[in-house]
Specification:
With about 280 residues, the chain is of the alpha/beta class. It has ten helices and ten strands.
């Protein structure tokens, strides 16, 4: 049977992708951030997951105002990098796992969560930057990836509680798949940041550090945090953190924290990173 062995959480700042692609990772500004991901790169090389279910949000690349699914699962064989205005990132095409993706779709919908099935789409920095941070610059990504897109761009986004409960449904789906697969679930986005308006540039390290602590040790309580608290405390884009709750819901109640990293700033964003192992 398939099993979820670990969860990974990380920010997906587009400027991080640019720094990698332009060879700036050792610049004075960027070096401390990339040093913080060395543990994860070494760890995942040993773990060798078969499939990553990667929870992210699209940034008006695959979806636009004409179609905004709350939850969408990519069921295709492969996904090309998006052109976000300056050409696609020079990264490998993402190889999907249609059999597992369709199984998850069927199981989760029967578990009373509505998913939009996507058989053709591109994937933007929300998905490719986390892969680059953990795998570097390979000629091909070393495992299959199932894109799982969440709307946190257009109001109303799903609640943290909804996302946490969805993670539990995803776990039931994955663990009922017949093939013997090592599956990881990643939650991406955040941490505190705001990109526009009078509070543009907002970073709230106190909120971020509390979130990192609670998502490990008090996920049930953290799931109850309302939208307004994310927006007020973490900025308008801080709502991306609900996607971390999907990852956490997919894991056991008790987990082993293998690694925690926090860095300010990357561009105008606070960067957070967690690696959690199922007990």
């Amino acid at each position: 049977m398939a099993r979820i062995t670990a969860g990974v959480a990380t920010s997906h700042v587009p400027a991080i992708g640019a720094a990698i692609d332009l060879g700036k990772t050792q610049d004075d500004y960027w070096a401390p951030l990339f040093k913080g991901y060395e543990f994860g790169k070494n760890w995942i090389e040993k773990e060798k997951p078969d499939v990553i279910l990667l929870v992210y949000n699209d940034h008006a690349s695959a979806f636009g105002m004409d179609l905004i699914p709350t939850f969408a699962i990519g069921c295709a064989e492969e996904f090309a990098p998006s052109d976000e205005g300056w050409g696609p990132r020079p990264v490998p095409r993402v190889q999907g796992h249609p059999e597992l993706a369709w199984h998850i779709m069927q199981s989760v919908i029967q578990d009373d969560f509505d998913l939009t099935v996507v058989n053709e789409m591109t994937v933007d920095h929300g998905l490719t930057v986390p892969l680059s941070l953990m795998f570097g610059q390979p000629e091909a990504w070393p495992c299959k990836v199932i894109p799982f897109a969440v709307n946190v761009v257009v109001y109303p986004p799903p609640s943290g509680q909804r996302c946490y409960n969805l993670g539990k449904a995803l776990r039931r789906a994955i663990e009922s798949f017949d093939d013997d697969l090592n599956v990881q679930v990643w939650g991406t986005g955040g941490m505190s940041h705001q990109l526009q308006g009078p509070r543009a540039g907002l970073i709230n390290s106190e909120f971020d550090q509390d979130f990192l602590e609670r998502i490990v040790n008090d996920p049930e309580g953290l799931a109850k945090l309302p939208h307004i608290d994310y927006v007020r405390e973490a900025g308008s884009e801080g709502i991306e953190l609900v996607m971390w709750m999907i990852m956490r819901g997919a894991l056991n109640e008790n987990v082993k924290e293998l690694y925690r990293f926090y860095h300010v700033p990357a561009s105008n964003t606070a960067v957070g990173h967690l690696i959690l192992e199922n007990s």
